[in-house]
Fold each of these.
Amino acid sequence: MHNRRKLKLKKFYFHPITVYLILTFLLLILSAILSGLQMQATYNTISPTTNELESTLVTVENLLNFDGMKYIFSNAMTNFLSFAPLGMLLLTLFGLSIAKSTGFLDTLCKRCLIKIDKKILTFIVIFLATISSLINDVGYVILIPISALLFLLNNRNPHLGIIAAFAGVSFGYGVSIFVGSMEVNLIPDTTSAARLIDASAHVSLTSNLFIIIAFSLILSLIGTIIIEKIIAPRFGKYKEKEELSKTEELVITDAKELEQQKIEKEHYEKRGLKAAFITAIIVIILFIYSIIPNLPYSGMLLDMEEDTYLGQLFGTNSYFQDGFTYMMALLLTLVGIAYGIGAKSIKNDKDIINGCKETFAPMGEILMLIFVVSQFTSVFKETNIGTVITSWCASAVGNVGFTGLPLIIFAIIMIGIANLFVPTASSKWQIFAPVMVPAFMQANLSAPFAQFILRVGTSITAGITPLLACFAIYIGYLNIYNQDKTKPITIHKSISYVLPYFGIIAITWILLVIGWYLIGLPLGPGVYATI
């Protein structure tokens, strides 16, 4: 009897879509309970006009009532269509499907990437993922599908590619090889908060430049070791499913004819690659020209209403930032078509369109997942539970009374906890900055260092919260490449895959910050952790 019960339990698995639906229902009940208990918090924001603190009271909203149900039903479609990862993912898959169906990616892997050591390929994926936060969340939607495919084409388990890309973006979020959208979004709040203590305070865009470059390299190296030495051994060799029925044919072919076919195929592949590379160079030059200001017909992708070049490039209304995913999809599309024409793998437009079917075939499951995740995250945001918890964490940093290393470590922990409920860095910083920056400055720690600590806390827990919007892409792709459809990869299992990465990288982050602070290395040009 015991064995039968155990067998039944083993066969029962909740799909992530079902789990998110259950979580949404439980969230509604929780909102009613917490609202009844009058769960609330008060936090300060800084007025952009007077530069003075303004107190804001936030309470948990009950969505298990008439108005709550009205919000859920009336906003369901809007929440789905405005869900940021959705459009970016569809665009990426469109370009990727053409590049794959024409044979470009297969030939590229066979002739170029297959020669690269597997550890180097893993490092490249993680490094690109880590620095991708230069442009918001594009790393999730572009690198997860591409990494899965590259690992598969290189005879490696695609799950490793998915995990490497997701972990690289999440646990290295906010570090890069240059300043980007994060600086543009955070610095106004950092500067305003610093001026509460010093009216002449100024935080430059390059104030964290040295430390983010160093950390991006270090974290990528350690991430590669974690993937190859700890996570990879957990995954067996991935074997693509063969057709259920096969007919064997005995074909007698002349050896010279086989050799001639091989030579001809290689000739067309080389010609296709040459056409693809020439096309890629032309498209990239045009993209670069479109972000150079003050040249004839240039600057098309810049927001010329901004005063600084970085603002024009990464500002709120930047065409470059908003259109980056489309540019990458266009690059993959044009390169794939150029290869197909050169290699004669496509003959007409129907070949291109039909070739996209395979890539888009599993999208139904991901679209369902994105729909339920978009409802869950929007309902959670509407309850204000995350904002209340974030306010408590920020208040704790301001009132703890620590200085030096204890204050730094405590702030990292509080930001890490808040990030589980509010994964967006800029949203957290609006609440943390007015409290944390003055607390740091009064403890002889600089405002730019406080801003960097936000990156640390955010990165440490970004990959283990299901409230992260792009978590849907991660878990969706794990299930696309899951060969046993009777046992879907659950939320719990997907998080367990990255737990070793989370643990080691969290310790690495904290040790690196402590070391940087104690040694007194510059954060950026003329900027240090201490005032």
Note: Confidence is low (pLDDT under 50) at residues 242-253.
Amino acid sequence: MTPRNTLLSLFLVTILFSCSSTKEIQNTTSQLSFEVTLPKSLSVQPLDGRLLLLISNNNEKEPRFQIADGPNSQLAFGIDVEDFGGANNATFGTTAFGYPLKSITDIPKGAYYVQALLNVYETYNRADGHIVKLPADNGEGQQWNRSPENLYSTPKKILIDPSQKSTIKIALDQKIKPIEPPKDTKYIKHIKIKSELLSKFWGRDMYLGAHVLLPEGFDEHPDVKYPLAIMHGHFPYDFGGFRETPPDPNLKPTFSARFGIDGYNIREQQEAHDFYKLWTSANFPRVLAIKIQHANQYYDDSYAVNSENLGPYGDAITYELIPHIEKQFRGIGEGWARFVYGGSTGGWEALAVQVKYPDEYNGCYAACPDPIDFRAYCLVDLYKDKNAYFLESDFKKTPRPMHRDYLGRVNSTLQEANYRELVLGTKSRSGQQWDIWEAVFSPVGEDGYPKRIWNKMTGEINPEVANYWKENYDLTYIMKRDWKTIGPKLKGKINIYCGDMDNYYLNNAVYLAEDFLESTSEPYYDGEVDYGELAEHCWNGDHTQPNAISRLRYHSMFISKWAREIGRRAPEGVDLEGWRY
């Protein structure tokens, strides 16, 4: 290179560096801010919580309903607030953490729909001595964007220009309305009980609920006692999938992007009505079927196990709620006459309670379960990997995927999903998937909140916490460790189903669990593990139907399957016919 060319190159580099530095300085010194106020008309008392600033470039829905992991997500920024209200306003400045853009200075200049929302926290004085601030469930299943008592502002279209000094003021002016509970029908009953175990742990009254589907002929056969079919899963508003009437003729068809089906909502209603007809038919097994409500301060569901952070939900469900239901609705009330089933979260729960309470349940059907082996915590090996977000490498950062379709096309990464959660809530309080796993599986930290399995910003894994997870919640490891004692109690009870293209890579953990189960002896596990070819999340073992249909048939599939199998595992002399009228 000639000296002249060298000088020219240095000059161009200087210009480029100068431009880059100027832009960086403008961003870091930007005085754009958003000031949020809480009028006394909404709350006389100051409030604690997570304050969210929500920004969208469209008005298809309110911004609070447009925050997601996929590529269509709009913008969210979050800050913790204490004693917010009155004269204490809250300000989103350049340090407020955001998703998918990290700072408000990164927002491109333009017109946006802007909204603020306060996810209100309550203070809990737990029995373990910790005082924590967490969002209460208010009957919606722990959903921050529609939880009653949460406050929000009416969306407004605002010009945003991060290069200009300005303060955009937003006043919270709305409170989310209470949710009307479902009403009892001939077949579906709703119950709610105070849990003494959970109330003692949380230092205030805590409740468990359930939706109970009564068998055909329940009133006409007052002397019959019934087995109990327990479906685990996310918070159910009612006993979904059961509909006494045909599909609504005035229902406007909606398109399911996931399944590529137009009018999928009509098909859902038809499947629910078909189940009603099957349930009331002459030959369907007569059982009590229930869905449990156990939303809590961290999630829409407790994972049905005892936890240092959530409390003794496993014991509360098994020894308080279920016996109460059986007593009120004439259940047989013995472990041999109960079984569990579910998909995703419910799949993990079905296997977990069967493993942890082997005498209390007589069969589990776990479809697409959340990670049942932490060597495959989705795409992370918690025991060998050092970082959750990136593949180990000397020089490059390859992000780990979080979600794919059946062709392997990725639409979000593990880091992105965790950053979204970090915006929605610090200290595992987002109410989302990765945080609830952390809340359930982790020990309590010194501050009273769950210990992080990994640094939420960097992805660096904590091996001490990983080892705690292993000993207490890695279901494959626990079965292997304790097979001599629990194996005889689990023989014939374990059934696992998963699509080999599960959207969240959950099939990887199932492969590892199957390797162990197939290696068992004295006794051999004598159950079933099956995979759906190119099947995505929620596949449940039905090779005859597409996933879009089979996922709507959990009740009919697994209740019928258990009724066919129970004769092989029931104690001698029990009544296997009285409830088959």
Note: Residues 1-28 have pLDDT under 50 and may be disordered.
Amino acid sequence: MKKIKEKKLRQKAHILKNTAFMLRCAFKCSPLSVLIIYFSYIAENVYYAVVINVMFLETALSVIEGNGTFKEFVIRMLIIVLGKILVDLIGYIDVYTVRVKFQIKCESYLNSLIFKKAQEVELGCYENPEFFDNYNRATWVIDRDGFKRIIEGSAWTLGSLASLITLVAYLVSIDPVLIVFVLCPVVVVVFKILKNNLELEKEKDMTPFERQKDYIRRTILLKDFAKEIKTTNIFVVLEKRFRKAIEGNIVVIKKYGWKIALLEFFADYFAEIIPVTGGFVYGCYRLMVVGDIPVSEFSVLVSAITTCRNKINHLAYYFAMQQKHCLWVQNLRDFLEYEPKIQSGDIIPESFQKLEFKNVSFRYKDDSPYIIKNLSFIIEKGQTVAVVGHNGAGKTTLSKLLMRFYDVTDGEILYNGINIKEYDLQKYRERFASVFQDYRVFAMTVAENVLTEEVSDENREIAVNALKMAGAYKKIDKLANKENSLLTKEFDSEGVLLSGGETQKVTIARLFARDFDIAVLDEPSSALDPVAESKMYDALLEGTKGKTVIYISHRLSSATRSDNIIVFNEGVMVEQGTHDELMEKKGVYSEMFTLQASGYKEVCEGEE
């Protein structure tokens, strides 16, 4: 029982706190728009509920019964007409000028908050399905017009409340007993809240299935997967997964459907039958039995009760909807309030001198095996270091630790003798230039992809020179718009689709376009043939003179050009030294190099 009470208190707090959160966001976007929207809804509600349904009806019936003067009738009608003009004018201004711009501004503001948080969270979040479910739920506020619904819902609620108070005051002045029938629909709010809680649980249970369906829809339409889908039977597997996700949704709907239907039935009963029937019968009793009210007052009483019923039902509906939408907002707030595990320090890193891995071990989860075990080595300024080993040996994990995408489980990484956790995270990463194994290009121009920032006349030449150093400019120069050519066909049918090798060269060009202390290249030649790979490494050696370079690869072309080679095997450093030293040892490195060298020789002979 205590837990249920605590849950209800949290739900109430969610409505108040989350509505307040959205209002703060709205005021940051456009305070005047918020005031106009609220004033518009309040004016409209009060006018139609009080002025039309009570004042106008009472005036018309008074004329029929011969009560009042013509002058009083004209004055009341003028007030009604002027009120109509004012309400409509405010409404038109709100709908056609204020609300459209306001919604765009609010959506833009919320998206910026989500984008900023997505940039802050650690890499591990992107490898966690639960994170993606939370992220999807966080975007409901925008995808489902939640912002608009909450602001308009709260404005309409306030307007309905203002008109309801006026109507209740009028009815109580006639007969205090009438309040019993008027407030009966308040029970509807309870049923609506229970219904919304069930719907939220239903949507939460459906999220994993919806994400699977969305993934399959995107996969089937993406060019990256088109060849595999057309040449294999994977489509059958995808289709079965899609049907399975639909079946999962059906199970969830069956689980909650009958409960939601039952709650909706009781809500409608208390909302419609009791207040209207009860109020009408009591009014007839006063008119026909007691005889203490005239026909005009009876008609106005019935109209007021019906209007109160409608307003309370609207309040129940909007309160329930507000609760549902505020639970969407809670998902957003939970996402925005997430504290990244990778926290920035305060120290600004100075020019690089030395990097040290000191007894470093790492595993992704507490119950998972170690990927890296007790790793220790030192990299001095200006050194070229190759980290080599078979696939799955832990090489890429080393680069993730170095860039602080993850923090070490045990040990420490020292930059100039200071633990990297103590450095300002952004400033620390700015000391590095990286080329990742799973490289990507954006649906932007070649120059924007290289510079990874806006292109200007001042930095355009930097992009061109970087493309030349990466060996990519020969291809780019043949394009119609050269470095201004748009990559991919995401937004333009005239967009350029580069080969895997050319795409990798463009991503390598990013390195040459940056000012850095340390270059980290994770499988930088994975899409290149042996000749192109050799040329790329020659260019890298030329372009990184005086810099510190860390090559991470299972292909050993980089190793022969390195000052130091670190050999990984199952997360452990098994060998270290120069190429000649390791070849003399005839260990793991020597065996790998001999096998790869024979493979390269066969490829070159085949090309001849």
Note: Residues 71 and 77 are 10 Å apart (CA to CA).
Amino acid sequence: MVYFSRIVLVLLSAFILIPAARSEEPVNVELERIVVTPLGTEQSYGTVSRDMDIVDNYDLSSVHYENVSQPVGRLTSAQSISYGAEGGLQTIRLRGSSAEQVLIMIDSRPVTDSRTGQAELHSIPIDSVEKIEVIKGPASAVYGSSAIGGVVNIITKSPTKKPKTVIESSFGTNHTFHDSLSSSATIKDFGYYFNYSYDSTRGNRDNSEYRSHNWTGRFDYKVGEDNRIFFNTGYFQDKGGAPGSIFFPTLDQFQLNYKDYFDLGWSAKLFEDNEITLRAYQNNDKLVFINSTNPFSSDAASGRTRGMLAQYSQKFFGFYKVIAGFDGKMNGVDGSLAGKHKNVVRSPFVQNEVSIGKNIEVNFGVRDDDYSNFKGTVSPSAGAAFKIGEYSKLRVNYAKGFRAPTFNDLYWPFDGYTQGNPNLRPEKSWSWEGGFDLGYKSGLQLSATYFTNKLKDLIDWAPGTDFVWRPSNITSAKIDGVEFKSLVPLTKSLKFDFGYSYLNAKDVDLNRFLIYRAKNKFDMGLTLEYEKWNVRFYGESLGRRYTNTANTGFLKKYFVAYLDASYKINNNLTTFAAIDNIFNKSYQSVLGYPVPGFAINGGVRGEF
């Protein structure tokens, strides 16, 4: 695998650098965009030393996505995991990670559930999202546990300068409805953004009906120049059937979710070339699972995370920037099955950025996470970005990561199907990657990355010989691969994009593949922008995935395609339509949970 990856990168490098030698000027691929996720503070995308994807507002508004997992899952080296039903769990894997190894954040506030280690992406309203920043590979040096496989930072819309109201309504297959209303404005120094959305469907299986309500609010107050107070809050509730797997269907089970949060902070520049941020937040969630209605029985679990962050950054001499701070949180759960548990995490951290001349950017840092129920873990990282043109760069990055077991990993009681393991140890990883991002005058954009990630004590849920799923520490695992992304302008109005990732994810001791990791993934898209029309075709091919540790069962490879189209009637009204699973492909991303087949929906969006 290593030799194959190196050969691919050498060939790609030769293909790309030959045009550069002919003095072709790079096209603007927006390397000067400002991002916040890689180091936890604003920096130019051109100085980022690791592979990163950005789903911007144009991408989000031109394609009719139903939830956040869809645009992220379509990225190269990303995989969306769906349990089929509209209200079923939907998560993201990056570069062969598990869903628990990917930290999900909203406006840099962690929302990953400490009980399950996952975030329910369908509870995040896509209408309120401005852009999504995704970094792959360990980011524990910046964000601690749960970032061992990468970070998805969902950045919501800011208050608009002028009053703006957006109304959207759509209807589709299986009596699926989506309605949303948002309002935003800035009055003197006070700005607000509010969004409400409603979703419902009969579902694609018996007992898969679903209904949800989602409220979010964002408020900013400008105290002075470069000095502001912000407050974010939201409430989510849903009710959905729990049809179970096709092997063991359940027709009288359903679940209810309740979530709320607040996020209060202050950000200011007190002196020249510095910034200070203070924030406090709280996430609450409650799950009620109705096991049966006759006779009635139920289980409930609630979780709460309270956190605070103090961060200060200062630039010295025009070429050196230090970012230092303290991140603390308390995680607690109370469940009718798993019991009552809590832990406290205290995490000082420091990151450094150094400019060497005009073309070299170096970063290095470390974070120390001290858990009340585990031994502390130190996570360092280092990277460099080398500009080889105005909008092109080479990059290399090294990082260590870790993930603490979740409360469910440790304490889930035996229920006939699953059982926790209180003897689990935290996962640890060592990872490095190297690659390039290049663009040309013609509009061609190319990117390639080789990565390798060695893991110790990997926490892996898998069925045993008794078919009961349990987590265990795999002594040694290795995940390496290569990914390639391209954007090719065919005409002024038509462009083609293509991505490929090769993944080798193995349990080294058993010499077997890790479950649910596809070795090959191809993705491609064709986008037409002509006058008032925007049409997008997307296709994805995912290779075979093993479903047990013995590698005797597997899900077959599949190809699934989507089509989105929108037409701007006037400055205020846009109509749109979308077709999911155009060829009505029957497939599963989790064994026993079929993904819906052919579906079509359409609607209208008004902006006033």
Note: The radius of gyration is 24 Å.
